[in-house]
Amino acid sequence: MRYRLRQLFEGRMHIRKAGTSDEESIRQIHLEAFEDDESELVANLACDLLKERTSPGIVNLVAEEGMVLVGHIAFSPVLSKAEGSLVGCILGPLAVKPSHQRKGVGKELVERGLKELSLLNVGVILVYGDPNYYSRFGFKREVAEKYIPPFPLKHPFGWQGIDGFDEESHRDPLPIVCVNALNKPELW
């Protein structure tokens, strides 16, 4: 308790699991972080992922500074389309309030999420995002090419992955399915 109070007064960033009580703050983070043409779509996705129940569960993390949420990230399970078995997780969305961007918040969220997934022995971690940003964490296009997303990609160069903590590798590209919140063609 003493540490928590000190952290609140010093304004240090703290990463924690998100709860449904964080929904409105998470929505606002995504609305502020994304361009107008996609902000509502991504904010809705973030909130849907916060409420959706899956097995294994979706990892939702927030960064807070003082009593204010400044960042959010979600990692949700992906399954083999043919077998329904767990293949890994997909990172997304990730957002940081503009006032806190370029201060390491996104980096802390990604690294904490990857650490949590390592404890779960996740097979692969996929992302559909900016290669210039995600490559610094080890995401590579060659890894993601082994997995066929549920819908055609508008920007195929953004499909990337990290070989996770399970050594199984697929020779032929493996079609995957995502959680319900990601099962919308407009997100791809």
Question: How far apart are the termini?
Answer: 43 Å
Count of the separate structural domains: 1
> Into which percentage range does the β-strand content fall?
25-35%
> What is the arithmetic mean of pLDDT?
91
User: N-to-C SSE series?
Assistant: HEHHEEEHEHHEEE
CATH 2nd-level architecture:
3-Layer(aba) Sandwich
Helices, by number, come to 6
- CATH homologous superfamily (4th level) name: Gcn5-related N-acetyltransferase (GNAT)
* Structural class computed from helices and strand pairing: alpha+beta
Can you offer a commentary on this structure?
With 188 residues, the chain is α+β, with helices and mostly antiparallel strands. The protein has one domain: Gcn5-related N-acetyltransferase (GNAT) (Aminopeptidase, 3-Layer(aba) Sandwich), CATH 3.40.630.30. It has helices at 2-10, 23-33, 36-51, 105-119, 131-134, 141-144; strands at 13-17, 59-65, 68-80, 86-96, 124-128, 147-148, 159-163, 174-177. Helix 2 runs antiparallel to helix 3 (36-51). It is globular and about 45 Å long.
Outline of the structure:
It is built from 6 helices and 8 strands. The protein has helices at 2-10, 23-33, 36-51, 105-119, 131-134, 141-144; strands at 13-17, 59-65, 68-80, 86-96, 124-128, 147-148, 159-163, 174-177. The chain is globular and about 45 Å long.
